[in-house]
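Name: RNA methyltransferase
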Amino acid sequence: MRKLKNIELNRLSVEEFKKADKMPVIVVLDNIRSLNNVGSVFRTSDALKVEKIMLCGITATPPHTDIHKTALGAEDAVEWEYYENTLDAIKELKKQGVMVCSIEQVENSISLPDYTPESNMKYALVLGNEVKGVQQTVVNESDVCIEIPQYGTKHSFNVSVTTGIVLWEFFRKIGL
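Structure predicted for RNA methyltransferase:
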């Protein structure tokens, strides 16, 4: 086997990406502290052609060197917008008919492998702060809460890892 060169990967340009069909998913980052996590979410969102990222609360916004360090330019391709308050972003999404899914450990959550998104629906995936998770007020406004099964000693995944797992599962189930 020969490792492929970047030029052989036939990736989209930023302009082509912006015009391309996207997966009907919006990522909502609820008060993410780490700029490296924000950058990683941009990069994963680019890879899976996410429609948009909503950066909320204390979540940093591009341009920023620490975001760029992990995003590697994806912050220029993936559309994003900033909301001072996550709840305002959620209320706006719900007005647009978007299904709001918080990724959180709550009573009566649905296990990610058991969740089947509908192909004709648009989804917002809310990911929470590295320590506190998704705010309870945001959980209260969510249409559903999805939980990733875990079997070790820790109670959560890193937020950028969680984003990758959940986005891949949505991509696998509904595609573009």
